[in-house]
């Protein structure tokens, strides 16, 4: 059985007080669930988030990480720094990092390798732009994103990889991929991984869907056999919405 996961990407939202308040509310309302629940506040609030969640099953993730061990990389954060504050999950490859900070597949391959070598779990995001889908290039694009960033990993590293398929046209736009579109792509992703690493790896990897998931559409998307949960942006900032999405899994 694959792990079901609901992860909230808070992006550049919530100051310290707001972080603590949202986590207190979330912990109090968290439904009884077998799914893994993860939240990713901004770097400066990660330690406080862990402290606020001490007696909760909710886990904390970072939104990014540098590939280098340490050194002259002003403003950056290393794997060891995350592990040093008990954060062992990191989101890499989010479309906003790709679009606004120039992160490409080659850079992401280095980040993923460092993260898994250090023992972090990676939520690896990828997905096509609207033009790719209109030109019927979405499968080829997704395949190349996976190959370029992840296919240099050993099969054993895949236990630390969580995939998040996020069609860029659905992120923060209110436009959601239909459950059928999500299932079609997730099945393709699993087959691509199976062809390269074998069915045990492919069947074990959780593939999350991300892109305007909300309480009203979560259950239908999560009902698809290859959709193992969601990476949630906007709706993860409101406790009642995030809880409703967790309840939907
Ligand atoms: C995201 O940023 O990963 C995301 C899925 O955002 P939203 O849910 O707001 O579309």
Q: Tell me the CATH architecture.
A: Alpha-Beta Barrel
Question: Which cofactor or ligand species appear?
Answer: phosphoenolpyruvate
Order of helices and strands: EHEHEHEHHEHHEHHEHEH
Assembly type of the chains comes to single chain
Biggest sheet details? 8 strands, parallel
Secondary-structure-derived class: alpha/beta
CATH superfamily: Aldolase class I
Shape: globular
**Number of distinct helices:** 11
Helix content: 40-55%
Subcellular location: Cytoplasm
GO molecular function: triose-phosphate isomerase activity
Function: Involved in the gluconeogenesis. Catalyzes stereospecifically the conversion of dihydroxyacetone phosphate (DHAP) to D-glyceraldehyde-3-phosphate (G3P).
Pathway: Carbohydrate degradation; glycolysis; D-glyceraldehyde 3-phosphate from glycerone phosphate: step 1/1; Carbohydrate biosynthesis; gluconeogenesis
List keywords for this structure.
249 residues, alpha/beta, TIM Barrel, eight-stranded parallel beta sheet, 14% strand, binds phosphoenolpyruvate, gluconeogenesis, EC 5.3.1.1, glycolysis
Short description:
By secondary structure, this protein is an alpha/beta fold. Helices cover 43% and strands 14% of the residues.
């Amino acid at each position: 059985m694959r792990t079901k996961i609901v992860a909230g990407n808070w992006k550049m939202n919530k100051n310290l007080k707001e972080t603590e308040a949202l986590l207190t509310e979330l912990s109090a309302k968290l439904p009884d669930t077998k799914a893994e629940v993860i939240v990713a506040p901004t770097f400066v609030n990660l330690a406080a988030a862990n402290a606020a969640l001490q007696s909760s099953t909710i886990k904390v993730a970072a939104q990014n990480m540098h590939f280098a061990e340490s050194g002259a990389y002003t403003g950056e954060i290393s794997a060891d720094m995350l592990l040093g504050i008990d954060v062992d999950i990191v989101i890499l490859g989010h479309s906003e990092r790709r679009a606004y900070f120039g992160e490409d597949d080659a850079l992401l391959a280095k980040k993923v390798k460092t993260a898994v070598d250090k023992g972090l779990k990676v939520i690896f995001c990828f997905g096509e732009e609207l033009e790719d889908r209109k030109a019927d290039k979405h499968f080829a694009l997704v395949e190349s994103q996976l190959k370029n960033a992840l296919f240099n990993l050993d099969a054993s590293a895949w236990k630390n990889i969580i995939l998040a398929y996020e069609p860029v046209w659905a992120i923060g736009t209110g436009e959601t991929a239909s459950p059928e579109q999500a299932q079609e792509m997730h099945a393709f992703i699993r087959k691509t991984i199976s062809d390269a690493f074998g069915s045990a790896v492919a069947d074990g990897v959780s593939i999350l869907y991300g892109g305007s998931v909300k309480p009203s559409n979560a259950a239908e998307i999560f009902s698809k056999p290859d959709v193992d949960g969601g990476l949630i942006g906007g709706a993860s900032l409101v406790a009642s919405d995030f809880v409703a999405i967790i309840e939907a899994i």
